[in-house]
Fold:
Amino acid sequence: MGMRADLGEESAKLQEPQPRRGRGRLRRSWLWLVVSKSFQAKVGLAVLLFFITIAILAPWIMPYDVHTPVGPPYEPPSWEHPLGLDDGGIDMVSLLIQGGRISLVVGFAATLVAMLIGGGIGIIAGYFGGRSDNILMRITDYFLVIPDLPLAIIVAAVWGASLSHLIFVIALLLWTTTARIVRAQVKSGRERVYVMRARSLGASDSRIIFRHVLPQIGPLLVATVVLTVAVAIFDETALTFLGLGDPTAITWGSIIEFAFLRTAISAGAWWAVIPAGLCVAFVIMGCFWFGRAIEDALNPRLNVSYLSPRTFRIRPLPDAEQESG
Amino acid sequence: MSLLEVRDLNVWFDLPEGEQLHAVRGVSLDLDAGERVGLVGESGCGKTTIVLSLLGLLPPSATVAGEVCFEGESILTGSEEAMQLYRWRSISMVFQGAMNALNPVKTVEAQIVEPMQLHEVAEGSEASRRAGELLEMVGIPAAAGSRYPHEFSGGMRQRAALAMALACEPKVLLADEPTTALDVMVQAQILELLVALARDLDLALVLVTHDLPVVAQVCERAAVMYAGEIVETGPMDALFHSPRHPYTRLLFAATPSLHGEEEVVSIPGTPPRLDREIVGCPFHPRCDRVFDRCRVEHPELTSLGDERLAGCHLNDEWVGAGRGGG
Amino acid sequence: MRRADYVIKRVAFAIITVFVAITINFFLFRVLPGDAVRNLSRVPRASEEFRHSLEVQFGLDKPLWEQYLIYLRELSRGNMGVSFSNQQPVWSNLREALLNTIPMATLGTVMAIVIGIVTGVLSAWRRGNTSDHVSTNLAIAFYSFPTQWLALVVLIYMSAWFPSHGMTDPFLIDPTPWEHFVDVMRHMALPSLVFALTLYGEYTLIVRSAMLETLGEDYVLTARAKGVPQRRIVVRHAFRNALLPTTTLIALSLGYIVAGAILIETVFSWPGIGNAVYQAVTERDYPMLQGAFLVLTISVVFFNLLADLLYFRLDPRITE
Structure:
C-alpha cells in the first residue's frame, strides 16, 4: 500500500542514468560487489535465504502434521511445542513453516505476474516512447491513484476466493509501480551508446531489448523484484485477513486471520498471533534491506552533508620547533 | 599587522580505511586591507579547503592545525558559536556555481536580508532598502529582489550572490571560482565588478581559481599552490614574467594565448597522492629542471626580495650564484 | 498564466480518475456471473414492491450502457442503492461511517507525520551515528509489520488501559457532552495509536531521504557560511526544501491510510468506513461494497489533488 508509493516515486527517481564503470565487469560481479560491500545487503540476503530454505525444506523439517491436532486448543508453548498450539490443537511451528511456504510462493508468483505485465508495459513505454508511452502512462497514472486495498477487495470479493485469484489480484495492485520503474530503467538504458550503435547496425527492436537493454538494467530489475515481493507478501496478509484469501490454504496471513476470528486474544494466546506477524515482518525487512542495498550500490548517492552535530577537530602542530613558512 | 594572517595551516581529512589525506600542508598567507590576492592551482591542490577553513566550514572528518588570525584575534577555535561571530560580518564568501548557492524557495531579497537581521546590521524596511542598494551595486535592478533564484540567469545569480556576500559589509571577501561556470563575456563583467567593488569598498579579496587569465585580471599578487603547499608567491607581473618555480612557469606556459604562436605546453604526469607522506619536493616527478637534491630534500619557501617567496632548490643555486633564472 | 494551467490540469486529472473508478466499479459488478451480484435490487428481507422500485430506479432490465448512464445519474443524486444488511440507503450508512473514521484516522495520521518528521530530520542530521541506525531500522520494522498484526499486538498488551472495542461504551447512559467526548477519546486511543505506528515508519524514511538530499546542497553550506545557526538552517532552509518531495510522497501514501483504516477498524470494531467495508465483504453486501469503494476512491483522489495544489504553493519553480 504505502510501500508501493515509496517504491514508485523513490525508486523511479533513483533510476536516472548514472555514469557506469566498466559494463561487463560490473554486470557479472554486481551481486558480489553489492553483498561484499554492504552489511545491510548481507543481513537482508541472509534473512531471505533463511526463510526460502525453510520453505523449500518444509516437508522434511516440519515437526508435526498441519492437519492433525496434537493437543488441546491454544496450549501454551512447551518443550515439545516451542510455539504452542493453535485453536485447533495444531502445532504452531509446523503451521508457520507451511504458512511460510505458501506465503512466499504467493509473494513470488504475484511479483512474477506483476513484472510480466508491468514490465511489459514499462518496456514498451520506455523503449518506444512517444504516443504509446503517453497513453500507457496516463492509464497507469489513473490506476496509481485508485486506492489499493479497496480495489483488491472488490475484485476478490466478486471473483471468489482461491490462491490463483489471490495471486492475480495482488499482481493487479503491483503492476502500476513496476511499470513505472521498468519504464524509467528502460529509458535510461536505451540512451546508451552501444544501443544506438546496435540500432544503426540494423538490429531489430526485440533483439536490442533482450540482448542489450535488459541485461543492462538487470541488477536494478532484481532490486525492483525483491522490493515488490515485500509488498506482495504484505498485501497477501491484508487480503487474507479480510477473508478474501483461499480458505483452504495455510499462509502467515491466514494464521493471523484465524487468531483474530477464533478469539486468540481473549484466550491470551499470544503465540498464535505474534510469531506469524514477525515472520512476515522479517521477510519484508530482509527484502527491503537487500533491495535497497542493491539500489544504493548501483546508484550511489552523494554522501555529502554540510550540517552535522559534530565539528572538525583541532590539533596542535606536529612539530612545534619547526619554523613556519 | 595584516588584516588576515594564516600561519602554518594544515588540514587532514579522514579516509574510509582509517588513513588520512593531508590536503593542506603548512600554508601561510597574509592579507592586508583592500588587497586583492589570488590563490592559484590545479583542482585538488587544496585551495578550496584553505578558504573553507577560514570560515570554519570544514566537515567533521577534518582535522586542523595552525593558526588563522583576523585583526590579531585567533578565529580557528573549532567552536561553531565563536565562528559565527566572524562569518559574513568580517569575512564572507562567494561560492563556485552560484546556481545552487542560493536557496530556491526563498526570494533573492530575503536571502540578502537574512544575514543582516541575523548579525543585527539592519532590520525590516531598512534591511530591504539596503538589499536593494546592494543589488543595484552589482548591476541588478532593486525590484528584481522579489524574484526567485531560478528566474535569474547564471550571471545574474552570481551577481546576486555577490550582493548577498556584501550584506554585512565584511572586510574580507573570499571568492572560490566565482566565474567558472559562466561564459566568457559574463565572466569578464563579473571580474570587473569584483575589482570595482574591492576598490570602492576597501574590500580585501582572496580569489581562488585554476584559471590564470582570471587571476591576472583581478589580482595584484598571487600564491601558487601545488599538492597542498604554496610553492610561490609574488606580484602578478613578476609571476608571469619571471617565475621562480618551475610549476609557475609551466602553469603560465600552459595557458594558450590568443595570439597563438607559442606551442601549448601541458605538464605531463599527475599530482602526488596526498594520503601519503611526500619525500622531497612535491613537484619533482613532473619537473623539467629536477636534480638530485629535489628528490630527497623538501624545499622551504624562501624570500627572494620584493615580496617574493618561492620554494625551489633552484633558487638557492641562483641566490648562491648571483645570477640565473628559475 | 502557466500556474493556472497547472491547477486546471490537476483538477481535470482528478475528475477523470474518479470517472475511471466509477466505471470500473460499475462494470466489475456486472461482468461476473451470478444474479445476486448483478442485481442491486435483490435486497434480502425487502418487500416485492421495494425491490421492484429499485429495479425501476436502476433500470435493471435495460441494456448495459443505459444502465451505466442511469447509474451515473443516480450517483449524482447520491443514490447508491440499498444495503443488503440493514436495508438503509448505502449513502447514509457510509456517511455516518465516514464521520466516525475521520477523527480517528486524522489523529493517527497527524501523529505519524509529526513523529516521522522529527525522527527523519534528526536521523538525517546525525547521519551515520548509532542513533540514526537505530531510528532508521526501527522505522523499517514498523513499516514492515502487518497492520492488522500490529493492531492485535497492541490489543493484547494495552487493552488493560484502554477500551479495545467500538467507539463508545454501551453501558454509559445519558452521557453529558463532555463525558461522551472523553468516552470516545478513550476508545480512539488504541486505534489511532496503531495508525500512527503503522504509518510513521514510511514518513521517517521519506523525510530522512529528502533531508539527506537537501543537506548536501550548496545553499546549506552558504547558509552556514552566513553564520546561520545550524538548528535554524535545518528548519528554515533544509527542511523547507525537503518539504517538497515529502508532501508528494505523503500524498501518495493515502492509499496506505485507507488500507490501514480498513484493517485497524476491523480489529478494534471501530464503526468507521473501514469496518463497513469489512462487514460488507463478510456479509456479501454488494451495494455497500460498491459504495464504499467509490467513497474511498473519491476521498483519496481528492486528498491527492489537495497535496498537488499544496506542493504547487510550496515550490516556486513549478511551471509547465
Summary: Residues 95-284+299-311 of chain C form a domain with the MetI-like fold fold (CATH 1.10.3720.10). Chain C touches chain B through 21 residues (CB under 8 Å). The mean pLDDT of chain C is 84.
